[in-house]
Amino acid sequence: MPPAKPHPPTPFTPLDFQLVLLRRMADHNPDLVERARHELGVSVAEMREANRRWQAWTRAPRSRGTAARYRSVLGAPESVTARRVGELACEALRWPVPLWPGLRFEALLGPDGAVWNAWLVRAPGAAAPELRTLEDLVPWSCTVDEVARAFTPARPLEGTAPTRWGLAFTAPDAAGTPRECAAEFTWGLLQRVAVR
């Protein structure tokens, strides 16, 4: 009997990619991730497997470039926009993310085609939350850019992992007292705020 042929690898899908985003957020908001996982109809094991496959793919010796990987998984971008960062001309590629319909996954490509940044941003035309006080800073409600604009001047903080960012800023509490804050973001989405 001839040996069985190996099965071709299962394609990595947009659903798998959403599971990768969720896996990084589980450290900060396991309850929100659990609800999202149920909404997507996947098990904890499926989420772990998607993350394992993504990590293996990104670390493979002959892995595609990051932008090509995003295109392979997410398809053609919904939009490609020219953007300037200082003196450099860049491109912002955006894809819809069904789990967060008001957001888009954005990859910012430098002039050489390398991905400089990849995170969730507000979708064009989608209403952004009103951010006035600490109480408005609810996990998963806003993006890095939205918090930075609402509470200027915000200062970037070093993230604890490649997909994590931080911001230091001053925001009033419910009584109007200014408080020093540090917000943590994963894939550009607010996860938590610590008051100093």
Describe this structure in words.
The chain is of the alpha+beta class. It has three domains: 10-63, no CATH class; 66-125, Beta-lactamase Inhibitory Protein, Chain:B, domain 1 (2-Layer Sandwich), CATH 3.30.1450.10; 134-195, no CATH class. Helices cover 28% and strands 30% of the residues. It has five helices and eight strands; from the N terminus they run ααααββββαββββ. A four-stranded antiparallel β-sheet has the order 1-2-3-4. Strands 5-6-7-8 form a four-stranded antiparallel β-sheet. β1 (79-85) and β2 form a beta hairpin. The protein is globular, with a radius of gyration of 19 Å. The termini are far apart.
Topology:
Layout (H helix, E strand, L loop, with lengths): L13 H12 L4 H11 L3 H16 L6 H9 L4 E7 L2 E9 L6 E7 L5 E8 L21 H7 L4 E3 L6 E9 L5 E9 L2 E7 L1
Antiparallel strand pairs: 1-2, 2-3, 3-4, 5-6, 6-7, 7-8
Nearest-integer average pLDDT: 91
Q: How are helices and strands ordered from N to C?
A: HHHHEEEEHEEEE
Strands ordered across the widest β-sheet? 1-2-3-4
Tell me how many strands there are: 8
Helix content: 25-40%
Largest sheet: 4 strands, antiparallel
Q: Structural class of the secondary structure composition?
A: alpha+beta
Termini, distance in Å?
A: 69 Å
In the predicted model, the low-confidence regions spanning at least 5 consecutive residues are none
- Shape call: globular
The tally of helices reads: 5
Kindly provide the radius of gyration, computed on alpha-carbon positions and rounded to a whole number of angstroms. Answer: 19 Å
> What is the assembly state of the chains in this entry?
single chain
Number of domains: 3
Strand content: 25-35%
